[in-house]
Specification:
Blueprint: H1 5-10, E1 27-29, E2 35-37, H2 38-43, E3 46-47, E4 50-52, E5 59-61, H3 71-79, H4 104-123, H5 126-155
Helix pairs in contact: 4-5
Length: 156
């Protein structure tokens, strides 16, 4: 499935240009009717539970139960398959100090997976992702062969 430039623009937060997701970047509706992703609203300057709209500067009171998700817009994005998946790429993660060096390999795998997901999401083309995966596998196989040959030459 391919998307028009307008559809892709609509599926992104106007402030940060990241795709909306169901949770971490859920579309948040302001009292003035504008919509921004949860991370942009949460990371903005909020004083006395009042958010000032990025677009028109109108204040929005953040009530006791928090930010209000633009549910209708979220459902439209889901139905049009324009809602980005929740992946590490879309989430702000602050690792604990001990976890930072624990598994660099897993972080690399998650990063590559997230980038491939982004390619598929933007292009709506699973075949392109499969082609990229095959090319990466071939490159990694070639690289592993070079390392093995270098090690064999070193110990000969």
């Amino acid at each position: 499935m391919s998307f028009t430039p307008y559809q892709l623009k609509m599926a992104k937060c106007e402030f940060c240009s990241e795709f909306y997701t169901a949770n971490s970047r859920a579309p948040i509706l302001t009292s003035c009717g504008h919509t921004f992703c949860r991370q942009c609203v949460e990371n903005s300057y909020i004083v006395n539970n009042v958010y000032t709209c990025y677009d028109c500067q109108e204040p929005t009171l953040i009530e006791g139960n928090g930010l209000k998700v633009n549910v209708g817009f979220l459902r439209c994005l889901e139905m049009m398959k324009l809602l980005a998946p929740e992946t590490v790429y879309y989430q702000t993660i602050i690792p604990k100090r001990a976890e930072v060096a624990v598994d660099k390999r897993q972080q690399l795998v998650e990063s590559i997976t997230a980038q491939l997901t982004e390619v598929v999401f933007q292009n709506g083309n699973d075949r392109l992702a499969r082609d990229i995966i095959k090319e990466v596998e071939q490159n990694m196989s070639d690289y592993a062969d070079r390392i093995e040959n270098r090690d064999n030459d070193h110990y000969s």
